[in-house]
């Protein structure tokens, strides 16, 4: 059994990690922490009462290093890099769910803040499982993709070689309110979200450069990504629609089926996807259609799981020599 911990156990992604790790056949959950500490996991998340009893410590590098072989960092950007640096230097494997290690240095500093751990940044492997599976088997530092980039990239990457050179991508993305985190704001207030839908940070959201950077790294193609996220009145789930221009007529579903033929957690759908069918699972559902040279691709994921926590566990599985799907949720929250 690999001893694992979660730093940042109070948030939604921290809760999802704990829920998977409690029953994971290859991981033993030995350490939980927040920036405050001095509580228990049942006090933070009453839904876990009679499921797990474990103290929640005040986050400390030495404490994590003494208790764990691998740690998940479910912290905000900037907070993660300080912990990760110390943990890596103590010989631990780290899976970071923040943005701190998922971007190239120039991209990160242009959209977040100055990076404090440049030495380890180049060692990080982007944990988009289907595209970096082999690299994850040989790293001690995995960087979880953002939820929007996960859904967008899984949908559009198979089509990049077929797109007209120089044509822009338009990404229309919609996410449940849990994607905004646990802290209340005016935007996520019930009165604002209920019976409502609205765009935020259109064409300026910092996930756009992440999508563009990964397209270039994987396919060597520079693309203009026009990204518009929306908040919808749902707790969880994410639906991303991408529009592009093809070089020639193609059969989009055939391209998807061939590209993901050996990927067990990608489901190619014959009709447009929905968020309910992936809620509570690690699956990504994808549909695509074309009208002449106009391409439509739509993908659905659970923003907290495939968009964060279950993708982190899949990366940890690969880093520890386990089967990629070990302990991952597959039964959707339906009806």
Reconstruct the topology from this structure:
Elements: E1 2-7, H1 12-22, E2 27-34, E3 39-40, H2 41-44, E4 55-58, H3 61-67, E5 70-73, H4 79-89, E6 93-96, H5 105-111, H6 118-121, E7 125-126, H7 129-136, E8 141-143, H8 147-156, E9 169-175, H9 190-193, E10 198-199, H10 207-219, E11 225-231, E12 238-245, H11 252-259, E13 266-268, E14 284-291, E15 294-301, H12 305-319
Parallel strand pairs: 1-2, 1-5, 2-4, 5-6, 6-8, 7-8, 9-11, 13-14
Antiparallel strand pairs: 3-4, 9-12, 10-11, 12-15, 14-15
What would your notes on this structure say?
The protein has 335 residues and is of the alpha/beta class. Helix content is 30%, strand content 23%. It is built from twelve helices and 15 strands. The model has no long low-confidence stretch (mean pLDDT 96).
